[in-house]
Amino acid sequence: SCCIDILGKSAMALKIEKLNKHFANGKHALQDIHLNIGEGEMVALIGASGSGKSTLLRMIAGLLPADTQSGSLIEVNGHCVQRDGRIASDIRTIRSQVGFVFQQFNLVDRLPVLVNVLVGRLHCMPLWRGVMRWFNAQERVLGLEALQRVGILDCHAQRASTLSGGQQQRAAIARTLVQGAKLVLADEPIASLDPESSRNVMEILTRIQREDGRTVVVSLHQVDMAIRYCPRVIALNQGRVVYDGPSSQLTPALLRELYGMQADEFLSGSELLTAKPSAAPAPTLAWTNPSVQMA
Description:
By secondary structure, the chain is α/β, with parallel strands linked by helices. It contains ten helices and eleven strands.
C-alpha cells in the first residue's frame, strides 16, 4: 500500500521495492533496489557508466519490465507501474504523468520547436488531431508559456534542427511542462552539453521543482552538479544502491570508498578535490541503512 498523508493524497511520488533486472546476456543490471522518493523532491542519481542509472529510469517510466517472480513493485504517485515484472495494463494513463528528458533530446528535427513541445499534449487529445497536428489556441498558449519559462520563446517557429544542444534540451523540458508531468525523469540531460548550457538546464530543472512542486529525478555523471542542485543523492554501483543521503555529505574519501578506482571519473577536475572537510555528521552508507537492503 502507498504512503498516504492526512488529506488522503499520495505523499510518495515514487516507491520501489525488491527491484531486480537481468538482461539476456546474464548481466544483473539492478540488484534488490528499494527506494522511496517524496513528492516535490529533487534527487540526483549518480554512478559510473553501466551502473544501472538509465535502466532504473526506464523501468520507473514503464518502458522496461523487471524480472518476473521477484516480488518487485514500482508505484508512481500511488499508481502501480509494474509488479512482479508485469507492466500495468493502464500504463499509458500513468505514463502521461511522467515526463522523460533524454540525453539526446528526442525532438523531431524537421518540425518547429512549438510543435515538438506540444507533442506533450498528445495524451489528452483525440488521435485524429494529434496525427494532423491540429493544436487549438489554448494549447498553443500553453506551449508558448512553457517555452518562455525555459528561455527560448524566440525560437518557437524555428525547426528543432536549428537549435543548439542546450536549446534542444530546454525544448525537451518545456515538453514535460506542457504534458503536465508530476514526475520528471531526466537521463543524463547535460552529458553532451557545454558547461554554461549544463548549468542552464540544471537551473531550469531546479526551478520547475521548486516553483511547481514537481518531483525531479536526474541521472548525472558530474558529482559537482549533483551537490550544487540536488539536496539528495542516490548512488548506484554495479546495479546496487550504495549511498542514499544528503548530497552535502559526499566527499572524495566517501566516493573512493563507494567506487574505488572508478571514483576518479567523478573527481577529475571536481571542486570536491579542494573542498574543505564538512563538519556535518557522518553519512549513512546504504549497507548500514535499514531502509536499503543489500542482496
